[in-house]
Structure formats: C-alpha cells, structure tokens
From TrEMBL, chain A:
PANTHER family: ENDOSULFINE, ENDOSULFINE, ISOFORM A. Protein phosphatase inhibitor that specifically inhibits protein phosphatase 2A (PP2A) during mitosis. Belongs to the endosulfine family. GO terms for cellular component: cytoplasm. This is cAMP-regulated phosphoprotein 19. Keywords: Cell cycle, Cell division, Cytoplasm, Mitosis, Protein phosphatase inhibitor. It is found in: Cytoplasm. The keyword Heme does not apply.
From TrEMBL, chain B:
Gene3D superfamilies: YVTN repeat-like/Quinoprotein amine dehydrogenase. It comes from Candidula unifasciata. GO terms for cellular component: protein phosphatase type 2A complex. Keywords: Repeat, WD repeat. PROSITE patterns: PR55_1, PR55_2. The lineage of its organism: Eukaryota, Metazoa, Spiralia, Lophotrochozoa, Mollusca. Residues 1-27 have a biased composition (Low complexity). Belongs to the phosphatase 2A regulatory subunit B family. This is Serine/threonine-protein phosphatase 2A 55 kDa regulatory subunit B. One of its GO terms (molecular function) is protein phosphatase regulator activity. Residues 1-35 are annotated as: Disordered.
Length: 132, 500
C-alpha cells in the first residue's frame, strides 16, 4: 500500500490526498501530509525566492499585528524617505508578499486632507426584511 | 441526569399514562414502592429525563437532516464591504439572534412565535432591532484608521425584561441595552399630544397622566463604553458565568472587566515580550468556562490552548494547563505554523470539552487530557495540496469559527464555496452542506455535497479547482436548545433547521 502511494505521487501531477486511509498506519498518514506540505512549500519558494526567513510563523504574526485600518503615516518611513534623498539610491525591494509595499511616510498627512470615513448611515440590508 | 435524592417528591407518584414509552408502566408501582426505593428512583429519574429532553431524544442519536428555513440579505453581484457579516450569535435561550457587520451595525432578529409553536416547529426569525454599534475612528497618534467592523457579539444572560449584549470592534467594547416599549404616558398637563407647550392660561383642571398602549418599539441604547484598554486588536470577548465580569482579549493581552466599571480593567494575561523582535506567538481567541467562573482558556497562533485559573495569581501568565498536540519539529514545513494556528476555541455546554478550529481541522479536547485532542475532524483536507495558492491569495489566513450543538453531540464549522461542515461525535458521521441561493423554498432538505480532489470526479461532485474561495463561511451559530443553525455567507444570513 505504501509503495503504491509513492508511485502515485511521482507520476500524477494532481494527486488525491487520501483522507480515509484506514489501511495504512497513522504515522504514514502524517508523513504523507508533511510531504504534501513540503511540495507546496517548494512551489512557493520557486515563485518567491526571497521568502521571509522566519518561516510561515513570522508571516502569520506580521499579518495579524498589521491587520486593521489603513495606516496613513509612519514616522520611521518618513525619516527613511528623507534620508533617501541624500543617500545613494538602493534597489527597490522585491515585490514580496511579506513586505508591506505601501507608500506611507512620503508626506505628512493632516486631519484636513485625510478623507474622513463616515459611518454607514444606511440601514443594514439584513434589517430591511427578508427576501423569501 | 438529576439525582432523585434532590427531587422533592414526598409521596409516591402514580406514574402518569402520558410519559414516553421508555418509562415503566407497571400499574401497581405507585402503591407498592416508596419514593426512596431504588427502582422508584430510577423511574423518577427516567421521567424527569424524558420530560426535559423530549425535544432532543430521537432514538439513538439519529443523523440530522437539515432543511432550509430562511435567508436574509440582498442578492447582489457587488457586495458592499459594509454589508459583510462579521459575527453571528444566539442569546442564551435562542429567542434572539444578533449579527454584526463590517459597517459597524448590529441587527437583532427575534424568533417568530407563530412558527415556533407550529407543529412541526419551524426556525424562523424576524427583524427585531437594528442599530449602529461602532463608527469608524481615527487614531491620530499612530495615524491609523480604526475599523468599525464588529468582531464579536456576546449576549448577557437575561435577568429582567431587557436584553443586554456586548459588541466589540478592534479597540472598544460597548454594552447595549435592548428594551421594548409598548406603553407611553398620555395626558400631560403642561404638554399637549404633540409635545408642544400648552398655553398655561388654558389649563383649568389638573389631570393625572395615564399609560396608554402604543405600537411596540424596540430601542437599543449604549449603556457602557469600555475603551482605551487595548493596544492591539481585540479578537474575543467572553462573559463570565458570574454574570458580573467579562474578559476581552487582543493579540497579546487579556483584560478582565466588571460590567459596571468602564474606567478600569484588570490585566490577567500579558504575553508581550520585552523585545518585540522576540515575539513568536499571539493570542487568537479566549473564552471563560461556562460554569467555573475562575477558569478561562486562550488559544494561540502556534496551535496551543492554555487553561488559566484566576485563583492562582492576579496575572495568569503561568497557565494551569496547556493543551497541545506534539509535533515533530524536523517535519515542519513553511505552512505548518500557519495552518496550525487556532482561529477559534469554544467550550462545550457541559464544560467538560472544548473544540478548536485550525485551518484544516476541528479538534475536540477533553479538559482532563492535555497531551492530545480526543477527536479530530478533517474539514477540507483536499486543500492541503493547494496551500501554495491559498497563501498567495491570503485565504490561508482566514479565521473560521466552530460551534457546538446544544446537546454537545454535534460540531459545525464553515468552509469555502459557501460549504459548511457538520460532525456528529457519537457515530463519527459528517456531512457537507451548502448555503446557496438556489435552495430558497422553506423546508427543502439540503443535499449533502462532496468535493473531489483527484482526477476522477463523480457526478454531483465539485472539483477542488472549481471552489469559490471568495465565498467563505467564517461565522456560524447553533441555537442553544434546538437544532437550528444560523450561517453567515458573506452578506447573507441563512437559517437552517433540522427536519423534526
């Protein structure tokens, strides 16, 4: 059974992930899962060679901590942008998923030129009666 | 099952004829047995069990068949972001169902009385109240917008005629009172019917204002605002069984509040490292134990759940128990940590178990066993070999919730393509159902769906590559007493009930 599945994996491009492999031992299932994941990782690495070194964990943390509303100004970015004018230009960072490619910090926003987000004055469509 | 010693029955009861067939019907049982004999105790406990569980006993845990009941919301190709439902919650008796959306609005539905009392009873809800809970704000210091999206709603247990709920966005929690008004005082002396001042010289006699019935009005008013206690984004709130306190959790801290006090809260968990560069895990969800008011759990992005006891220390940084499944560190992939992050943790109604949701599975843990879950259910294992594309389109970071049925026998969670999964714990049966617009005739039985991942696709099956990853069911709720479920599918709310 195990040898059959190895052959399957190498021959077919899109393999079935066996959900109910009752014959094989639990450990074999776990190993299979890891191999599937590692293949997916290879795919990702081939697309993004400069993947964050921290691994998936740091990508997850970045995602969580940076979630939320739009950021309009970052004093650090602003300082860097000012410094860049004098320093020699560095190549632009590769368009990575991990690095937030946002142009904050170029200008200082003021309350006047930030578009104030108005609350939803419209009543929720759920409250306007059911459709059926 | 209640012990018969706690049942106050002074004299032997004649066994009524109308009890369910499983109660013994020996005619002279009443005459020959006293209330304290063992056989009588068993019969009494049987009677009581059947009396309280008649709704749920369907034999030996027969499989539930789900039918469409209602759908709320509009049909639209381009869904406005504000209309996306971000949480769904039944109150403690299931009479009210609240939804929150990305636009900061809360809509409350009430069980339709006529359909509830019909035979067979139907799960139907009508709009009861709606209000703007949170509004978009701006943090000028950090130059950040604060979204008005409602992250969580939790109801307080009802203690009087009014209903109370807590709703939270990323930064602020609010306590809302939802009250009915069906009378108003009329016959004021100084004001007329329109509220205008009456000409004092025209008043010749005094009268006592009287309450007159009026059309039912449901008013929601904010009673408490709990603000400025969280630096990071609030992901959970949980009301304590002591009915006086509640917790709020953000990525790194958990605070304990008293419902009456808004300008102070106790910090009970703080996992922020001194140096943020050393940060390795964040808090993803937290919940109080349903019965033990001193215990709560919080889950992490690394796949572990920590149980804390507030009696031990003021700051519960040291957990009393930690639940995590051992993993071989050499066998990890880039995705391992992302998919093991727990997106939701829920205690069972009994308080003995808890269920956790990670990206691909739902696990049931016994609080008595920390080493591994007692049950693991695969939600959509076919996505494991799509992790690369799911990472690229950000779907791998989606946070799904999980729910228990009222009797703790079933677990439900959402998936993609508007599919949701139901797991039956006793027989290990599971099914995949779809919330779709095609089925909108009430009482239509939902057909189970199947996803095929291999080359061979059977008829009626849908291929993994055809799944719509924009149609995600992240938020679901199960009625606490009946088999009625509420499913949020983007901007639509579906209500399904089981065929009785």
């Amino acid at each position: 059974m195990a040898s059959d599945s190895i052959e399957d994996r190498t021959s077919a491009p899109c393999e079935t992930v066996r959900e109910d492999d009752e014959d094989g031992p639990q450990l074999q299932q776990e190993i299979d899962k890891k191999q599937v994941e590692q293949r997916e990782e290879e795919k990702l690495k081939s697309k993004y060679p400069n993947l964050a070194k921290g691994g998936g964990g740091s990508a997850l943390l970045n995602k969580r901590l940076q979630k939320g509303g739009q950021k309009y100004f970052d004093s650090g970015d602003y300082a860097m942008a000012k410094a860049k004018l004098s320093a020699k230009s560095k190549p632009p960072p590769p368009p990575e998923k991990i690095i937030k490619a946002e142009a904050v910090g170029e200008t200082i926003p003021t309350p006047e030129n930030i578009q104030a987000r108005k609350p939803s004055l419209v009543t929720s469509k759920l409250a306007s009666g059911e459709l059926i | 099952m209640p012990k018969s010693s706690s049942v106050a029955l002074p004299t032997p009861l004649p066994l009524p004829v109308t009890t369910s067939s499983s109660a013994p019907t020996t005619p002279d049982a009443a005459k020959t047995l006293s209330a304290s004999s063992p056989t009588m105790k068993m019969r009494l406990s049987h009677m009581l069990h059947n009396a309280t569980h008649h709704n749920k006993s369907k034999g030996n845990g027969a499989e539930l068949t789900w039918c469409f009941s209602q759908v709320k919301g509009s049909i639209e190709e381009d869904v406005a972001e504000a209309d996306i439902i971000s949480c769904v919650e039944f109150n403690s008796d299931g009479e009210l169902l609240a939804t929150g959306d990305k636009g900061g609005r809360v809509v409350i539905f009430q069980r339709d009385k006529a359909s509830k009392n019909a035979v067979p009873s139907r799960g139907e809800y009508n709009v009861y109240s709606t209000f703007q809970s949170h509004e978009p704000e701006f943090d000028y210091l950090k130059s950040l917008e604060i979204e008005e999206k409602i992250n969580k709603i939790r109801w307080l247990r009802q203690t009087n005629r009014n209903h109370f709920l807590l709703s939270t966005n990323d930064k602020t929690i609010k306590l809302w009172k939802v009250a009915e008004r069906n009378k108003r005082p009329e016959g004021y002396n100084l004001k007329d019917e329109m509220g205008q001042q009456r000409n004092k010289s025209s008043i010749t006699a005094l009268r006592v204002p009287v309450f007159q019935p009026m059309e039912l009005m449901v008013e929601a008013s904010p009673k408490r605002v709990f603000a400025n206690a969280h630096t990071y984004h609030i992901n959970s709130i949980s009301v304590n069984s002591d009915l006086e306190t509640y917790l709020s959790a953000d990525d790194l801290r958990i605070n304990l509040w008293n419902l009456e006090i808004t300008d102070q809260s106790f910090n009970i968990v703080d996992i922020k490292p001194a140096n943020m560069e050393e940060l390795t895990e964040v808090i993803t969800a937290a919940e109080f134990h349903p019965k033990e008011c001193n215990m709560f759990v919080y889950s992490s992005s690394k796949g572990s759940i920590r149980l804390c006891d507030m009696r031990e220390q003021a700051l519960c940084d040291k957990h009393a128990k930690i639940f995590e499944e051992p993993e071989d560190p050499t066998n990890r992939s880039f995705f391992s940590e992302i998919i093991s992050s727990i997106s939701d943790v829920k205690f069972s109604h009994s308080g003995r178990y808890m269920t956790t949701r990670d990206y691909l599975s739902v696990k049931v843990w016994d609080l008595n066993m920390e080493s591994k879950p007692v049950e693991t259910y695969q939600v959509h294992e076919y996505l494991r070999n799509k992790l690369c594309s799911l990472y690229e389109n950000d779907c791998i970071f989606d946070k799904f919730e999980c729910s228990w049925s009222g009797d703790d026998k079933h677990i439900m969670t959402g998936s993609y393509n508007n599919f949701f999964r139901m797991f039956e714990r006793d027989n290990k049966r599971d099914c995949t159902l779809e919330a779709c617009r095609e089925i909108t005739k009430p009482k239509t039985v939902l057909k189970p769906r199947k996803v095929s991942s291999g080359g061979k696709r059977k008829k009626d099956e849908i291929s993994v590559d055809c799944l719509d990853f924009n149609k995600k069911i992240l938020h679901t709720a199960w009625h606490p007493l009946e088999n009625i479920v509420a499913i949020a599918a983007t901007n639509n709310l579906y209500v399904f009930s089981s065929k009785d």
